[in-house]
């Protein structure tokens, strides 16, 4: 018996997701992130922000490639001709499933780190101007990737593939096998990485987004005042030198304003994604029947498809933000795609 979502509706959603929407978004996201990687490499890694953007692009493209592999494995598993394959495709996709979250969570951590660095540099530039260097950023990027990997080692060691003979087909295949502590580690993953961490990152990204937006408004008002009255600028500069007040976002340059706009938009969109992830994860914890194989399994499957599409979209649309707000990025992309000649 199906609840809320019928089996027919689930079949339609599965076809639309697996055969149309997911492959299309995956291809676009992979191409967009390859473009991001090439572009940021050409820009150079002399700036900590570019280093972070490059790391995010690498993490995103690996996540989407793994997601595409899982989607392809599921499609193959549902095909009649796959019965003779020596490996169970659903088992293979199940093994890869947990590895993709290493890169999903790494991207989330990197975007949160980007929000914190920009927020600090904009709010307290004198204190943090020389703190977030390229070298330190590279170290933090490595720490983020390795931490997300090694914290999941117990989970990875609790399952694997083994040759098992099927009682129905009488064929021996590589199939998913788990140890007795797999469920425990999987629950830790669900509660910690999928529920608690998104809520924490949501709070941080929302706070940073608010502070950066406030700084942009203040900078915009300040720039208007500066263009209207030069004497006011001189008076304010004299007052600052006398009171030793730190220079704030009111003196942001046009280039800095564009950078803060790009980061603010990325962080705001990240907040929306984290909100959805948090609600989805909390629903799984609060409603025990909202889980695969249980009462609301069809609804869970449809919501999972929607969340996956949102995650894939989030990895791809950053290139649009970079193109709009980053002059160097835009010029290099135009050169790579030969858009300058087409526009002229």
UniProtKB/TrEMBL annotation:
Keyword annotations: Membrane, Receptor, Transmembrane, Transmembrane helix
Superkingdom of the source species: Eukaryota
Residues covered by the G-protein coupled receptors family 1 profile domain: 32-322
GO cellular component labels: membrane
InterPro entries: GPCR-Ligand_Int, GPCR_Rhodpsn_7TM
Compartment(s) where it occurs, according to its Swiss-Prot or TrEMBL record: Membrane
PANTHER family: FMRFAMIDE RECEPTOR (PTHR46641:SF2), FMRFAMIDE RECEPTOR-RELATED (PTHR46641)
Transmembrane segments: 20-41, 53-78, 138-164, 191-213, 259-282, 302-323
Protein's UniProt keywords contain Transmembrane: yes
Name of this protein: 5-hydroxytryptamine receptor 2
